[in-house]
Write a structure and sequence with these properties.
256 residues; alpha+beta; four-stranded antiparallel β-sheet; 8 strands; 33% strand; globular
Length: 256
């Protein structure tokens, strides 16, 4: 009898141990699966970045226009990089953009669901001897893409607001008021409208879109400013309306 009681107690004691072991194994297994999914997402983003870089290099090689602005437009079209710069000394273009994908995580203790996975890339395009362009991709910390993302958001905002404007208000001062209704000082505004020109039914605006990091590290209070000049184009309908959405393309700083 006493032996049976001892065995029963031992079994009762083993139950929570087994349950706890099963619980921790489940947590470990789910965590490992989530890590696998995130790594697969990272690998997918890197693959997509290389594919975009290869497509862009091929497009640059095929381009018949060798002007800096035209080539920047090719890079913008194929990579969607909000910030594209040109180094005349190196004869190289550099584009910065992040890529993201949603990953569905398995739940652990009711915590799970979709999460956004991001990676930040710098694309460098150089024309070697002959006519072919080559590309190089460098992965960077997400902070390196923060300003680029902010400028991308600003350009999308500018496209919508310019498209909503009455055609008679499409002047340099009018567009500046729409993009910066608060009338911030020039060095604090996200937008600096450099010019607005109209030829027939086409209105072209040169706008400097900026991201101002007021918590920058260049000195105690000096902000870090990243800017990109864009050419915004709107086709005006016969009734003054918009024929199609306003288009945008980055241009070299010298154009501004």
């Amino acid at each position: 009898m006493r032996r049976g009681v001892s065995i029963g107690c031992l079994v009762l004691l083993m139950i929570p141990v087994v349950l706890m072991a099963y619980f921790w194994f489940t947590v470990w297994d789910v965590g490992r699966e989530n890590e696998r999914r995130e790594q697969a997402a990272f690998d997918s983003l890197l693959r997509r970045a290389h594919e975009a870089a290869d497509r862009t290099a091929d497009a640059l090689t095929r381009s018949r226009d060798t002007g800096t602005d035209a080539l920047m437009g090719v890079i913008w079209e194929h990579t969607g990089s909000p910030v594209v710069s040109y180094d005349e000394e190196r004869r190289a273009f550099t584009a910065v953009a992040d890529r993201s994908v949603v990953v569905e995580r398995e739940s652990i203790l009711l915590v799970g669901g979709p999460v956004m996975v991001k990676r930040c890339f710098t694309y460098t395009y150089v024309r070697r001897s002959g006519a072919e362009w080559t590309s190089k991709i460098t992965e960077r910390g997400l902070e390196a893409c923060r300003a680029s993302g902010s400028i991308g958001d600003a350009v999308r905002f500018a496209r919508v607001r310019m498209g909503d404007m009455d055609v008679d208000s499409l002047t340099r001062a009018g567009l500046q008021r729409v993009l910066d209704p608060g009338g911030l000082p020039r060095d604090e505004s996200r937008f600096d409208v450099r010019s607005v020109e109209r030829a027939g039914r086409t209105v072209v605006a040169l706008v400097l879109a900026r991201d101002v990091d007021r918590y920058g590290t260049r000195g105690d209070d000096e902000p870090v400013v990243v800017g990109q000049c864009y050419r915004l184009t709107r086709i005006v309908g016969l009734d003054g309306g918009v024929v199609r959405p306003v288009t945008a393309a980055p241009v070299a700083a010298a154009a501004c």
